[in-house]
């Protein structure tokens, strides 16, 4: 298993839908998160994309210079970006980061936001564009000279003068729950990402993607995007979950749910169906809680519990084929430590970092005669 964390460039805090306990997500703060998860042993970080976020490419470029091993999962936006320009950007950042770039393909799901970026294609047309985009993008990163004419995109004499480090290209992560999305993901992706639905639904999706990938003679890995709320006891974890939405009122839920209705994203519709826009019955599967999705778009579920329970749920997803876990929690700095310190050891997750020889645990006493430290 590989574990990723999240860089909250759209905002962070202790509670949802309120300014109470909110934090300014300026560069010093997101650098703090990135350096923490780098030291804790996470494989990488997902940096979100969209109108409400700072640009992920600029953010990742800056963070790559202040981290050592951390990988950066950042979005290409077919339709918003040209494949030739996106290929040059990917090659450059792959060089700068010494091969630590991962690509998150995002076709978009909110017609209003897409219109603001000049995109007016329908849902299925966006996936047609994505398919052509990736045909061109992958060929360019493989150092081919590209002449291409499709239904939506055309390139003559395209090429990359300064290729990236990873061959043939940085790994492609791809989410999309619709039939159109799954077809493109099966053809192009290295890792298929799904949001945190109950295991049975995730298993069905995995089987569908595998069958579609087999038509292309390909095999695909699978990842889960989900929040986590882990505490030393189940009681503390559920209290933290309920506290997260303690300032979410009915009006906030109503406004958020109205926005989600306009989305043509099948994945978003599935997230909304899990919480039904209501506070009751938010535990939709043992220790899988849909409270985040009441007011937050995208990933709307969290695994909640003590370390043993959370580890058990993660193993359940692993058993059905998930080997990449893209996690987040509020606030993101503290929750990254909570998960790493409490759950990593139970999963045998190797952090693969050398000891600095620094003290571990608080110094509580010193025996001057024996010249020994007593530590917790």
TrEMBL record:
Enzyme Commission numbers on file: 1.14.14.5
What family, per the record? Belongs to the SsuD family.
User: Record's PANTHER family?
Assistant: ALKANESULFONATE MONOOXYGENASE, ALKANESULFONATE MONOOXYGENASE-RELATED
Q: Where is the Luciferase-like domain?
A: 1-323
Mind telling me what this protein is named? Alkanesulfonate monooxygenase
List GO molecular-function terms, semicolon-separated: alkanesulfonate monooxygenase activity
GO biological processes: alkanesulfonate catabolic process
Primary enzyme class: oxidoreductase
Q: Is the keyword Lipid metabolism in the record?
A: no
- Reactions accelerated catalytically: an alkanesulfonate + FMNH2 + O2 = an aldehyde + FMN + sulfite + H2O + 2 H(+)
Keyword list (alphabetical) reads: Flavoprotein, FMN, Monooxygenase, Oxidoreductase
Coiled-coil intervals: none
User: What task does this protein carry out?
Assistant: Catalyzes the desulfonation of aliphatic sulfonates.
């Amino acid at each position: 298993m590989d574990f990723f964390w999240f860089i909250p460039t759209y905002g962070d805090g202790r509670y949802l839908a309120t300014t109470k306990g909110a934090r300014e997500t300026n560069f010093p703060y997101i650098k703090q998160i990135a350096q923490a998860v780098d030291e804790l042993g996470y494989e990488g970080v997902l940096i979100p994309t969209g109108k409400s976020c700072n640009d992920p490419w600029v953010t990742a470029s800056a963070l790559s210079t202040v981290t050592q091993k951390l990988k950066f999962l950042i979005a290409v936006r077919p339709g918003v970006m040209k494949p030739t320009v996106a290929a040059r950007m990917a090659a450059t950042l792959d060089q700068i980061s010494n091969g630590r770039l991962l690509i998150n393909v995002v076709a978009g799901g909110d017609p209003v936001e897409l219109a603001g970026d000049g995109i007016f294609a329908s849902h299925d047309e966006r996936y047609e564009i994505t398919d052509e985009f990736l045909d061109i993008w992958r060929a360019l990163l493989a150092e081919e000279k590209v002449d291409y004419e499709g239904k939506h995109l055309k390139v003559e004499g395209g090429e990359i003068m300064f290729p990236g480090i990873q061959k043939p290209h940085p790994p492609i992560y791809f989410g999309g729950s619709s039939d159109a999305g799954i077809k493109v993901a099966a053809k192009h992706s290295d890792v298929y990402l799904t949001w945190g639905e109950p295991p049975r639904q995730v298993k069905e999706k995995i089987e569908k993607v595998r069958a579609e990938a087999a038509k292309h003679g390909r095999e695909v890995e699978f990842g889960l995007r989900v929040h986590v709320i882990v505490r030393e006891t189940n009681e503390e974890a559920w209290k933290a979950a309920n506290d997260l939405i303690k300032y979410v009122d009915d009006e906030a839920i109503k406004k958020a749910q109205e926005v989600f209705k306009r989305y043509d994203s099948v994945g978003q519709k599935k997230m909304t169906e899990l919480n039904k826009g209501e506070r009751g019955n938010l535990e939709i599967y043992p220790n899988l809680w849909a409270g985040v999705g009441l007011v937050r778009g995208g990933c709307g579920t969290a695994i909640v519990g003590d370390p043993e329970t959370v580890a058990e749920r993660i193993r359940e997803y692993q058993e059905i084929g998930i080997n990449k876990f893209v996690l987040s929690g509020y606030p993101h700095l503290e929750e990254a430590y909570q998960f790493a310190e409490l759950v990593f050891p139970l999963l045998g997750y190797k952090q693969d970092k050398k000891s600095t020889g620094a003290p571990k645990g608080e110094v509580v006493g010193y025996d001057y005669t024996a010249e020994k430290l007593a530590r917790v």
